[in-house]
Amino acid sequence: MVAFGRMLLDYGIETLKYGIGIILVFLGLVVMAVGYLLMLIDLLFCR
Questions:
Q1: Closest CA to 8 of 20, 47, 17, 40
Q2: Residue 36 and residue 16: Cα distance in Å, rounded?
Q3: Dist CA 42 CA 40 (whole Å)
């Protein structure tokens, strides 16, 4: 999930000049944040 968010972020930065990149960067950041949150929850509760 984090890797997918990072991929979205990279693609968003590449397409920034077309205008849609801003949305992709934001989406990528959200997906990365959710991915890190899930990893944290997994570490805390799934021991």
A1: 20
A2: 24
A3: 5
Q: Which amino acid is at 46?
A: C
pLDDT in tens, 1-47: 778 878 877 887 778 777 777 788 888 888 888 889 988 888 888 86
Q: What is the CA radius of gyration of the chain?
A: 13
Q: Tell me the CA distances in angstroms from 27 to 13, 16, 20, 44, one per residue in order.
A: 12, 13, 11, 26
Which positions ≥6 away from 43 have C-beta within 8 Å? none
For residue 32, give Cα distances in angstroms to 17, 18, 47. Answer: 22, 23, 23
Residue pair 4/35 in contact (Cβ under 8 Å)? The answer is: yes
